[in-house]
Amino acid sequence: DSGVTQTPKHLITATGQRVTLRCSPRSGDLSVYWYQQSLDQGLQFLIQYYNGEERAKGNILERFSAQQFPDLHSELNLSSLELGDSALYFCASSVESGGGTYEQYFGPGTRLTVT
Amino acid sequence: GDSVTQMEGPVTLSEEAFLTINCTYTATGYPSLFWYVQYPGEGLQLLLKATKADDKGSNKGFEATYRKETTSFHLEKGSVQVSDSAVYFCALSDGGGSQGNLIFGKGTKLSVKP
Which member of B43, B93, B99 has the closest CB to residue A106? Predict the structure, then answer.
């Protein structure tokens, strides 16, 4: 158990809908990262938050947004869903392990199926 | 931009065989390198890491050495077990301004037969 929790575990929804994925980082970790894992694209970094502020953006679509709340949990919002958004969405939190290196600990993921 | 290339699987081995999964990277700076493992139905677990050239990361019998001259970080294990069956991901992080965002290879699926 990494200490990172994600809910829900599975989500099935229809095209055009909007969903919210939730992540709670490990106790004491200030950074939260979101990744998408799909068969064709592999594992791709979406966005990072640090202590409530957006820190870095990766390959995140404009239909997707995220935020980190004062209690450090984070939510990833996916809107106008398309079939191609079906994927596993992982959240990770990190701690600096020295020398500017960050070890990331991953949650179990949310499997999103868009029908 | 930065990228990671790892050998495509699947890799099928018999128990107690020697394992090598090749990983090479392209990076403009001096990245940290990682191997993550994903067991069926689970999230990714950090297996080992190396933060500078010639560092060797090791954990659970797995090893990988950061080779700057060949830009490689190959994963090895001397004697695999059935329980090692999983997908292995090589990743890099350039730390610094990116605050540790990971760039992953496509993953290599390992199946170990008894």
Answer: B43
Q: Does B104 touch chain A (CB under 8 A)?
A: yes
Quote the CA–CA distance of B94 and B103 in Å, as a whole number.
9
Mean pLDDT of the B4-24 span: 95
Over residues A88-100, the pLDDT tens digits come to 999 999 876 656 6
Backbone angles phi, psi at B32, to 5 degrees: -90, 150
CA dihedral B72, B76, B82, B88 (to 10 degrees): -20
Kindly state whether B102 is in contact with chain A, defined as any CB-CB distance less than 8 angstroms. Answer: yes
The CA distance from A22 to A6, in Å, is: 6
pLDDT tens digits, B64-101? 999 999 999 999 999 999 999 999 999 998 765 445 68
Residue B18 to chain A, least CA–CA distance (Å): 26
